[in-house]
Design a protein that fits this description.
460 residues; 2 domains; seven-stranded mixed β-sheet; 22 strands; 22% strand; FGGY_C_2; FGGY_N
């Protein structure tokens, strides 16, 4: 039996680091995961252990090459964003991988926005809400003024996906999906680095921009294979939908954050949208994607535990609660989607008295009503009046029948689908370089859909 050609995808999250092997039909034929203990940076703040991550990549590839049933054809990477690896002229890592959750120095922040016209102006021009270290360009700005000795030693600052690619190719590159994601670096109107990046000589720290479907040859490893240049994870997760559907759609990618992505809305971000946590991504083909964010998954976990404690039940019981239209009828009387505050406001369920509910089932339905109410506002921000008929939901909430039924009622003029596929981010990362490694046609059924209708007899 001949060995199966595979592509290896490293999908690196802040908590879990995963390796997937996909065959030419995009079936997962092998997977493994690892978690690393964080180290601390030079200021004592927890950060990614880049040495452990590097060993994970090399050890995993050595392991794959020993598997006689597979032939490694290509490798690619997707990782979380807003993380820079700084290397010197010899390719040596010369600084910690600073954690984007670290508080940004107020004095440096004020210095920057005073120099470049204020927060609202910069946010609008870079399509990036003011997010401190989550704006990865601000990390370099901070280094320049707080650690000039380090800034002067940096030859290249590579976003994490491109650094992992560099480990194998020794060719430094910059990818637009990492540069064009709430970094504060890119001027979306000019389609170039923002003026401040040139004035501060930050652009000199970035390697040449390279198309996201570029492949290079490996310089490290026991065998020869192609290496992609890496992708930002949110942009990678959108790729299976872009290649499977030509009709305009909006995708709500749900998890800790629920991110509404509209690849068909290229209108400039407004001040109101920016204040409500909207931003723009750049997808792997270079086009802008308007997005809005909602911390709904986190809210769901917190409030679910609160309900479970109050009613003395285990949290796993909520997995089996079916959608009950009668409960929704009783609860919906005080809900008016159009009159509620927008997505950035405090969730309504936070202030609800749990003693007003008869049981945990009723309380949980109210929680989902409140979350969907807020999700409606968040998603509506990226719809912006455009006539888009399809709404896809993937991730955790796509498996929640209460969320899905209520969402269908919140958007009665749209076709609402729960989408499922195996590992969307890793899959998209593999598809990004399909033409370079895979001789077969892309499967037409990569995304599987379940339709949710919105009966007019039960308006939300």
């Amino acid at each position: 039996m001949s060995a199966i050609p595979v592509i290896a995808i490293f999908d690196v999250g802040k908590t879990n680091k995963k390796l997937f092997l996909f065959d030419e039909h995009y079936h997962i034929v092998y997977e493994k995961s690892a978690r690393f203990v964080e180290i601390v940076d030079d200021e004592g703040y927890p950060c990614e252990n880049i040495d452990s991550l590097t060993r994970f990549v090399f050890d995993s590839l050595i392991e794959v090459n020993k598997m006689n049933e597979f032939t490694l054809v290509a490798v690619n990477f997707s990782t979380y964003g807003a993380s820079l690896v700084h290397i010197d002229e010899n390719g040596k890592v010369i600084a910690p991988l600073y954690n984007y959750l670290q508080k940004y120095p107020e004095s440096i922040k004020n210095q920057f926005y005073e120099a470049y016209g204020g927060e609202e102006k910069m946010a609008k021009e870079t399509s990036s809400p003011v997010l401190g270290n989550l704006n990865s360009g601000m990390q370099l700005y901070q280094i320049k003024y707080r650690k000039p000795y380090l800034f002067n030693k940096i030859k290249y600052s590579l976003h994490l996906p491109q650094y992992l690619s560099y480990l194998l190719t020794k060719q430094p590159v910059t990818d637009i999906t990492s540069i064009g994601c709430h970094t504060g670096l890119w001027d979306f109107e000019r389609n170039d680095y923002h003026e401040w990046v040139y004035r501060e000589h930050i652009f000199e720290k970035f390697a040449p921009l390279t198309p996201s479907d570029t492949v290079l040859q490996n310089a490290e490893g026991p065998s020869s294979f192609l290496v992609g240049t890496g992708l930002h994870d949110s942009s990678a997760a959108l790729i299976p939908y872009l290649v499977n559907f030509t009709e305009p759609f909006v995708l709500i990618s749900t998890g800790t954050w629920c991110i509404s992505l509209n690849p068909f809305n290229n209108t400039p971000l407004t001040a109101i949208e920016l204040k409500n946590d909207c931003l723009c991504y750049i997808q792997y083909k270079g086009a802008p994607v308007k997005a809005s964010r909602l911390f709904a998954g986190n809210e769901h976990e917190f409030q679910m535990k609160r309900i479970a404690t109050h009613f003395n039940v285990d949290t796993f019981i909520f997995e089996d609660i079916a959608y009950d239209a009668d409960i929704i009828k009783r609860l919906k009387s005080d809900i008016d989607i159009q009159s509620q505050p927008v997505s950035g406001q405090q969730p309504r369920f936070t202030g609800r008295d749990l003693f007003t509910f008869m049981n945990y089932t009723e309380a949980y339905h109210q929680l989902m009503l409140d979350i969907v109410e807020q999700q409606h506002h968040s998603t509506a921000l990226v719809l912006n009046g455009l006539k888009i008929r399809k709404l896809f939901v993937d991730g955790g909430f796509s498996k929640n029948p209460i969320f899905m039924n209520l969402l269908a009622k919140a958007f009665p003029d749209m076709e609402v689908f729960a989408a499922s596929m195996a590992q969307a981010t890793a899959l998209g990362t593999a598809i990004a370089i399909h033409d370079s490694w895979n001789k077969k046609l892309l499967p037409a059924d990569i995304v599987k859909l379940k339709y949710y209708s919105a009966p007019h007899s039960i308006p939300l």
